[in-house]
Amino acid sequence: MAVCMETTTVGRWHTERASVADGGRAVTVLSFGGVAGRRAQELVGAYAGTRVDWLRLPPEWTQLAADVLDRRLVAARVGWRLVLVGAEAPVLAAQARALAAGVLDDEILAEVVDVGGVEADVRSVHCAHCATVHLAPVPVGGLTRCPECAADLVVHHHLSRRTGAYLGYMNDAEDRP
Ligand SMILES: [Zn+2]
Q1: Where a domain ends, among 112, 134, 152?
Q2: Given a cut of 50, is residue 8 above it in pLDDT?
């Protein structure tokens, strides 16, 4: 599969915001799973002097995580910062949700940690054919079947920060007569 490095968004999104904006008065840290929790511990230590609200969540993106985040988003005030630590899928999902709620890019620190195992490779894939999103343990460039329309999708190096999902195109779309 050819990858156009000019248009790919993978590999840059998490380094764009290596540090969160200064001037934060309150920080909410969401960590997804045990490995992420240990990393979050270090980050929390670096926020001495700031009010830190740290929530340890299950490793995957869950309704619980969405509810917890939504409550923080509703209560958010000027000077609030959001720190996300975990595998790629929950971090991207949380980031997309926060951006949709009006949180600015530089108010979010998103850090993907290597959680190991199958969770590390779980991605949200947006099906270009039926416009649904599903989670699949698939690497970028790999194949996944859309559970909605049964299309075999190639996971492309195009990541939507709005939805937190990778774009999936039909595998044989270009080979068909
Ligand atoms: Zn589909």
Answers
A1: 112
A2: no
Identify residues whose C-beta is under 5 A from ligand 1, the ion.
Answer: 127, 129-130, 146, 148-149, 151
Q: What DSSP line would sit under 12-29, residue for residue?
A: THHHHTSSPPTT-SEEEE
Residue that wins the pLDDT comparison between 63 and 161 = 63
Among 67, 82, 112, residue at a domain's last position: 112
Q: How far is the CA of 169 from the centre of ligand 1 (A)?
A: 9
On whether the CB atoms of residues 165 and 125 are closer than 8 A, the answer is: yes
Between the CA of 171 and the centroid of ligand 1 the distance, in Å, is 12
Render pLDDT for 139-177 as a digit per residue (tens, 0 to 9).
999 999 999 999 999 999 998 888 889 999 998 755 555
